[in-house]
Design goal:
By secondary structure, this protein is an alpha+beta fold. The protein has 2 domains: about 325 residues, Outer membrane efflux proteins (OEP) (Up-down Bundle), CATH 1.20.1600; about 100 residues, no CATH class. Helix content is about 60%, strand content about 15%. It has 9 helices and 10 strands. Helix 4 packs antiparallel against helix 9 and helix 8 runs antiparallel to helix 9.
């Protein structure tokens, strides 16, 4: 018996491992935030929205227009017509315009006769009905500004989604790593136990059936070890999907790297959920809520534009005319005035557009109200899960300690000849099962923190 006792003692004395480096969860998230293509792609969306805002502002850019038309035929100068203008669009639909015309020729249209030195004009065009308080360029600029804010919120949501998926991949890697470690340790124990049993059977201290019992357990452990090895390799490949370097270079997780061992105590600080486990309300400026509010604001601008289309289109233009030599003498008796009126009789298209815009706003408002309730309930559910799993972890620690004591007690009884290898294996299986259950609960604990992090949607 003394020989078996010595072998059994060394079976639990620990295992040597090659030098390894801890790849912490915080360091891992840093790589994902900085280099992952989906996160960088979200930044491109902001750049795109900024370009769209610049494009909308371009509708208010001043414009220079020059129109020149000349005809010469059979040594006759039929006409030479040049019209140039400088336009300044303003916010409230008013357009300021200055121009200079110079027309010559023997076959000019009579209405195009002007002084030979040219004719200067300056004036304004004012929409008195449709387009005064809001018009398409005003609406486009407002919505472009709102779209930039919407894109920023959507960037946060996209980044959160990537970080959440990356976190789950890390937690799964840690889970499979720990499971493989357990199966590896108990497989080595089973191998040493087989050798010990063979020695005891040869010495006549144990029956031959114990050898079959030990070999059966070893084969089961080898199957479990092979399955755990496969799952770990698969988890490492899934984790590598989130590992990138500069210039969009993907990298694979190296075997020398191991997950953070004390992640249970650091995860809440890493993803800033330590202050959220007791808060059952939405944080200010939640990106999902802000995004919905921004969409409603954009729809309200659209409805104002549709409502403005119900007004008659009345465009009034006044232009002061003067020869270039006497432009500063201000003879306001020389002018050109124009009035354009356009008003559909039934307004069916305009009224339908306004109604559709109102329905879109109502629909988006319902989405906003529902989303607020859903998010608050999700926060409460995640907090309950975190608290429940935390209690389970404490219970599992005590359970593992109890199973360890029972196993050690059974081994002492075996040494005294009052137990069997079957009972030792049974105790050992219970210990393995408890340790695996603890690893599963740790995974749930990490995932529940990541879930709360995703709901709060604050990737910075």
């Amino acid at each position: 018996m003394s020989r078996f006792l010595i072998i059994l003692f060394f079976a639990y004395s620990g295992f040597s491992q090659e030098k390894q480096t801890v790849f912490s969860y915080a360091e891992y998230l840093g790589y994902v935030k900085k280099y992952h293509p989906n996160v960088r792609q979200a930044n491109l969306q902001i750049t795109k929205a900024e370009a769209q805002l610049m494009e909308a502002r371009g509708a208010f850019d001043p414009k220079i227009e020059v129109d020149f038309d000349q005809k010469d035929y059979a040594d006759k100068k039929y006409y030479s017509i040049m019209s140039s203008s400088f336009k300044i669009p303003t916010w409230y639909g008013i357009e300021v315009k200055a121009g200079f015309d110079q027309n010559t020729g023997i076959y000019l249209n009579p209405q195009e006769y002007i002084p030979s030195e040219g004719l200067a004009t300056v004036g304004v065009q004012i929409p008195l009905g449709r387009g005064l308080l809001i018009n398409e360029r005003m609406a486009n600029l407002r919505m472009a500004k709102m779209n930039l804010n919407l894109t920023r919120q959507e960037r946060k949501l996209n980044a959160i989604a990537v970080l959440y998926d990356a976190s789950i991949a890390y937690f799964n890697w840690k889970r499979q790593f720990n499971e493989l470690k357990i199966y590896s340790e108990f497989t080595q124990i089973a191998q040493k136990r087989v050798k010990a049993m063979q020695s005891l059977i040869e010495a006549g201290d144990r029956p031959a059936i114990d050898s079959i019992e030990a070999v059966t357990v070893l084969k089961t452990r080898l199957i479990n070890l092979e399955d755990a090895t496969y799952k770990l390799e698969k988890a490492k490949l899934e984790l590598s999907n989130f590992l990138w370097l500069e210039n969009d270079v993907p990298i694979e997780l190296q075997d020398i790297l191991i997950p953070e061992p004390e992640l249970t105590g650091t995860i809440s600080q890493t993803i800033a959920t330590d202050q959220l486990t007791a808060i059952a309300e939405l944080p200010q400026n939640h990106p999902k809520i802000d995004a919905l509010k921004t969409k409603i604001a954009m729809l309200q601008v659209e409805r104002k534009l549709k409502s403005n289309a119900l007004l008659p289109q009345i465009d009034l233009g006044y232009y002061y005319l003067s020869e270039t030599a006497s432009f500063d003498q201000y003879d306001f008796g020389n002018y050109k005035i124009g009035l354009n009126v356009n008003f559909p009789l039934f307004l069916r298209k305009e009224r339908a557009g306004q109604r559709l815009s109102t329905l879109k706003i109502s629909d988006a408002t319902f989405d906003l109200q529902l989303e607020k309730v859903v998010l608050v309930n999700q926060i409460k559910a995640q907090q309950l899960e975190i608290a429940a799993v935390k209690k389970q972890l404490a219970i599992f620690q005590g359970l593992i300690a109890d199973h360890t004591k029972l196993l050690q007690s059974e081994e002492r009884l075996f040494i005294l000849g009052e137990s069997s290898l079957f009972l030792i294996n049974n105790r050992e299986n219970n210990l393995v099962s408890a340790q695996l259950s603890e690893i599963t609960s740790q995974y749930r604990f990490f995932a529940s923190h990541a879930g709360l992090f995703k709901i709060m949607a604050n990737p910075d």
